[in-house]
Amino acid sequence: MPKxxxxxxxxxxxxxxxxxxxxxxxxxxxxxxxxxxYVPPPPxxxxxxxxLLTSHPVNEKEIHGVKVSSRILxxxxxxxxxxxxxxxELFDTNSDGLLCPPELRRAMKSLGFKVSKEEAKQLTxxxxxxxxxxxxxxxxxxxxxDRQADSRDMYDEILKGFSMFDHTKxxxxxxxxxxxxxxxxxxxxxxxxxxxxxxxxxxNGDGHVDQSEFIRIMLQTNLF
Length: 224
Known about the structure:
CATH architecture of the domain at 57-148: Orthogonal Bundle
Mean pLDDT: 77
């Protein structure tokens, strides 16, 4: 009989354990007061890189081993940058990676730009970000771009002048056009003086001054 009672007590103990398990699952978990109310999902692959590139645009890019600004890339092709690198190195006589005013003047002259000694000195002073009065390759490219813009503006003005002389819009200027323009503007020239002007500008001797001849004489005489 005592053995049977012992078995009964063991069964009751097991039941007590089972009821204990049920109570632990039903009780709520403690709330962490420091836990955030919302946790965003992890970013997709490449999302962080895209965000970085869009929020921090790249202002420089390497072309032919040289880092150039976005402005240079917008105005010059990789081929032009390479060609200008050759020009830069050719006139950088002491190979110090910088162009002094005389070197800059010769380099600009080789590219077809008219630059006086005073202008060359001014360009190196204005263009040197380090304030040393000499230009590195990037500063040289920026100077070329600025001069190109000036040349385009000057070219447009010359074409406007040509259009004003070409009264009949035939694509050339005759002696009659020149005489009429002088009369309209109130400028007095003798017929011989006007003929000499035409002869000087008329390279091919056909009696007319075409657009290219007009541009040449305007640039040659520094009228623009």
